[in-house]
Amino acid sequence: MTSRDTIALIGPPAAGKSRVGKKLAKRLRLPFVDTDAVVVAAHGPIPEIFSAHGEPYFRELERAAVAQALREPGVISLGGGAVLDPETQADLAEARVVLLTVRPEAIAQRITNGKRPLVTDLESWKRLVASRSDLYRSLADYTADTSSRPIDTIVAEIAAWVTGAEKEGHA
Q1: Predicted pLDDT at 171
Q2: What are the backbone dihedrals phi and psi of residue 100, each rounded to the nearest 5 degrees, phi first?
Q3: Measuring CA to CA, which residue among 62, 148, 73 is closest to residue 103?
Q4: pLDDT tens across 17-35, in order?
Q5: What's the pTM value of the predicted model, to 2 decimals?
Q6: I need a surface site. Which of 66, 75, 100, 118 has the fewest CB within 10 A?
Q7: Of 147, 145, 141, 148, residue with least CA distance to 162
Q8: What DSSP string describes 40-103?
């Protein structure tokens, strides 16, 4: 196994990184790590971390979880803002990076659960995505839109890309 056996899913909040990641990991027979879930398990709900300690503290916790996850082969779902860290950007150069995109009209129901402290409504989501979209694209090796297609189709396409890259010697 090499570091290229690590598939990192990046993208905006509510793009489906966790859902796609779980299914992709199962399909590829790799472990799955959701870095937001790692932070929550160790430190409590993300909105509470933000309110008690602020975003910079959360980003430190997130960076530690991402760095640890990227050390092992597997499928890793990164929080939407994890890519803002320059060290994370450098680490991602050693992984296969899949950008999951989603159109605004498809995420309205996905962002109303209160789990995303930086996204309180559709307008705040649009602003956040606009500010990060160039960075997301610059880090991505492969892009898949999750707006309306079945999740199993998306997973199959990503898995085919991953296994095709291995056959072509890009592993």
Answers
A1: 43
A2: -100, 125
A3: 148
A4: 999 999 999 999 999 999 9
A5: 0.88
A6: 118
A7: 141
A8: HHHH--HHHHHHHH-HHHHHHHHHHHHHHHTTSSEEEEPPTTGGGSHHHHHHHTTSEEEEEE--
Residues in the chain: 171
37: phi then psi, degrees, rounded to nearest 5? -65, -35
Q: For residue 138, what are its two tokens?
A: 């610059």
Task: Judge residue 138's burial from the number of C-beta atoms within 10 Å of its C-beta, 0-12 exposed, 13-18 middle, 19 or more buried.
Answer: exposed
Give CA angle at 96 (126, 20), nearest 5°. Answer: 55
Q: Shortest CA distance to 12 belongs to which of 93, 116, 92?
A: 116
Q: What's the CA gap between 70 and 5, in Å, rounded?
A: 10
pLDDT tens figures, 62-90: 999 999 999 999 999 999 999 999 999 99
Query: What is the residue whose two structure tokens read 């597997």?
Result: 74
Under 8 Å between Cβ of 32 and 75: yes
Q: Which domains does the chain have, with CATH numbers?
A: 3-165 (3.40.50.300)
Round to whole Å and give the CA distance between 140 and 134.
Answer: 10
